[in-house]
């Protein structure tokens, strides 16, 4: 090889290594991607892999493994409950920031991004608020003002520290609700009408010009009939399109990703297509609350557990591969990382459900964890390229 050719070859090799963001192997330090965390492997693709954090578990001195994994395995965190209105303002006029502040500090110490969850939702509202509206002591006009003040106060407190805010959560009904035609549901729509959605995004933007502002919902992982009357993905798509046309500063659509192995499951290309349709609106996307639960009919029976572990892993992987395939998909967050701390068994008891996360109750990684890891390791150009984040809309 001539000197010149050799230099060219060396330059190409260096550029390739840089592009893949990998560490070259040496005899003394063989490169082993399986030893890397999900968070580190995700960053090869500029993808944040995150988890929801349960503050009680994080602070439990008898459960140090929770804190260790929350700190080391993920590049992003979400407060599972600590930033909800009932947690922040349990008594009217008195904010309790302790837990939310603690999570933001934890993230900073561990160089993690924070997804803020959640500014406007019909659940986990303070009792003083819902009771006041119910007994008429809080008027509609006052309610709107209380919402404006809440959003402004919370966003302002964490200004510059939150990467993505879930501004509005779960505003749309499901086909099993009454009426079955999809509509704006819940406390806020009932009391303020659907305009609260545009208002909320505008108020959030006014308080933080840099955070990415998301609409977040479940059962929008794939499109269905394409009719917004019964296809929730289409409804959300059309809603966001309408908001953008009105100049509302919405930057992203969060697809929660609460799946169950007992349901018909999606395939990767279906989910990829859904993300692309959202992305075509010009917004970012993210999986924000991924878990895959199973019915536990015969606990301990390996003939049942094996297919459930396998199906759960496949579902986690479908969402990850779809996310990797679409450059607008900025983050992939699991809703709790261990079966020891998961909302699922508390919520679904007839029949009991569980096994929804990527580590078992003893913090041993499950098949789902290994599949996510392989997805991150084996992905790369030309089809999987680094994420492209939008500039926050003014
Ligand atoms: O995981 C959360 C659980 O601890 C709470 O009790 C529950 C109360 O509504 O909310 C859970 O988180 C929800 C999230 O905030 C929004 N999407 C659905 C999640 C699971 O219910």
TrEMBL record:
Recorded superkingdom: Bacteria
Keyword Nuclease attached: no
Record domain GH10: where: 52-375
Signal peptide: 1-27
Keywords: Carbohydrate metabolism, Glycosidase, Hydrolase, Polysaccharide degradation, Signal, Xylan degradation
Catalytic activity as recorded in UniProt: Endohydrolysis of (1->4)-beta-D-xylosidic linkages in xylans
Gene Ontology biological-process entries: xylan catabolic process
Broad class of enzyme this protein falls into: hydrolase
InterPro entries: GH, GH10, GH10_dom
Recorded GO MF terms: endo-1,4-beta-xylanase activity
EC numbers: 3.2.1.8
Coiled coil (residue ranges): none
UniProt cross-references to PANTHER family, sorted A to Z: BETA-XYLANASE (PTHR31490:SF88), GLYCOSYL HYDROLASE (PTHR31490)
Annotated family: Belongs to the glycosyl hydrolase 10 (cellulase F) family.
Protein name in the entry: Beta-xylanase
Species for this entry: Micromonospora acroterricola
